[in-house]
Amino acid sequence: MIIKVLIGVTIVLLVAYIIYLGRDLYQHRSMIFKENGNFFLQGLFALFVQFCAVLGFSDFALNTPVYRATKWVDDARLPGTLIVGCGVPAILIAIIYISNVAVEPLSLILCIAVQLLGTTVGVRFVTRLPAEKIRLVMGGAIALSAVFVFLKLIGVLGGQGGTLIGFSAKQLFIVLPAIFILSALTMVGFGMKAPSIALFLTLGLDARTALLIVLSCCAIGTTNGAFRYIKSGRFQRKVVLASSIFGVIGVVIGSFFVQALNVDVLQWIILALLVYTAISMLKPKKKSDQVSEG
Q: Residue ranges of the domains in the chain?
């Protein structure tokens, strides 16, 4: 019953977001196709990105270098374009996962609530923290988690990964503060997907359930920020329109792919994600590469 209510609320959120974004796009329809880039190419790229997003890969990390290299988006509008553009696909991903993957309702609701709290309140605290040290600590933590997941997958630590669909009370004392901090860090350019997935798998959560909770949290948090960016108008509307239309196609294809995957294969894919993220965070960053994850 709780899951059905949550699905209903998420669908209402999706409809409200489409209406709010659609109104802005309609009001500026004469400007949209004057912006940089080929709409069809932008759409095909969005399809690919959102297919990867269903597997837990950061759409911010995939979009940022391409948007800059192609000059589809100028740097001033980059944060808004990243957040507004993934709004519709992200909410749809959450709906699909919640509808098809087993999860303990209380764990999901608490994680989403804390994620919202982190993005609205926690950001005031993390903006004062040294970004370079945060990046290195997070990269190291993800690398250690990747080693742990690898050892589980090859049977050294026993088993082939977790089977839990929710957190115990003791685990929530670890998970909820971590989500609060990670969600706050997303507001200053750090992605929460990979570190959250790493933590959840380390605690024994099923791979699909881990993706469900992380992607649902990201969807709600993204939408929370997207409404503000739409109101301000600080985003590239052509790219956002392409992402909203073609990205949905990528989400649908990706969801069928995930459901057809053997869970062990999915865990190897997630392991690759963790290794990639750890390497990208531990290597020196250029000043131009501030917004890279979501």
A: 2-282
